[in-house]
Task: inverse folding
């Protein structure tokens, strides 16, 4: 993927007699600001990113920025929330596409997670790394997001137990632990090797998720022949 594909040029909306409706302009400004925030934070880090960096990248005025967001923190958290919502929706779609094969759903959901982060490197850094240094509200938001990912894992596991009653019941904290472990592994990979390497973590991430939920022996048996060689 080229730099231009990762960071497409800003769209200039027509002005004058053929100007876009106000709501279209407002939505375009908002999307550009959110994308600019993610790009600026990925490049400079959250602490060193200023509103000036965001408006320069978005191609809007400072006045326009404050018409959308109260401050830098609000814009950052909105960018985080927007990316998370899109990521969770994409994973849900990937999982649903494999139903009722729950092992296939687990594989598809994990692959979608890793591929989506690799395809959106600015968001990946925001999601995995910069959120940690963005203050108390950001850490609270991160905790809520981890709970949403844990619920997604729990839903897949619940579907599996409907088909295979012999699968062990799993406490809620196990799913939360799996999310934390995966987040740590993927963040380290991102920092050490870059976002393009994340899709190659499919086997490792599934190993963590399924071993915690099922135990290594059962996890290996159920995924045998369904994963690429590590």
Result:
């Amino acid at each position: 993927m080229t730099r231009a594909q990762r960071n497409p040029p800003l769209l200039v909306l027509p002005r004058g007699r053929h100007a876009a409706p106000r709501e279209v302009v407002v939505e375009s400004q908002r999307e550009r600001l959110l994308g600019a925030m993610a790009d600026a934070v990925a490049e400079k880090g959250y602490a060193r990113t200023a509103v000036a960096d965001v408006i320069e990248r978005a191609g809007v005025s400072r006045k326009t920025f404050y018409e959308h967001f109260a401050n830098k923190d609000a814009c950052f958290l909105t960018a985080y929330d927007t990316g998370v919502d899109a990521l969770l929706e994409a994973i849900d779609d990937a999982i649903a596409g494999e139903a009722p094969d729950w092992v296939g759903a687990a594989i598809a959901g994990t692959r979608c997670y890793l591929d989506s982060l690799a395809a959106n490197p600015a968001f990946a850094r925001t999601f995995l790394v910069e959120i940690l240094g963005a203050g108390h509200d950001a850490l609270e938001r991160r905790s809520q997001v981890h709970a949403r990912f844990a619920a997604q894992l729990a839903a897949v596991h619940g579907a599996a137990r409907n088909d295979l009653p012999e699968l062990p019941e799993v406490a809620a904290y196990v799913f939360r632990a799996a999310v934390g472990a995966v987040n740590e592994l993927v963040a380290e990979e991102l920092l050490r090797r870059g976002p393009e390497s994340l899709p190659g973590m499919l086997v490792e991430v599934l190993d963590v998720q399924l071993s915690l939920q099922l135990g290594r022996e059962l996890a290996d048996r159920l995924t045998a022949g369904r994963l690429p060689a590590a």
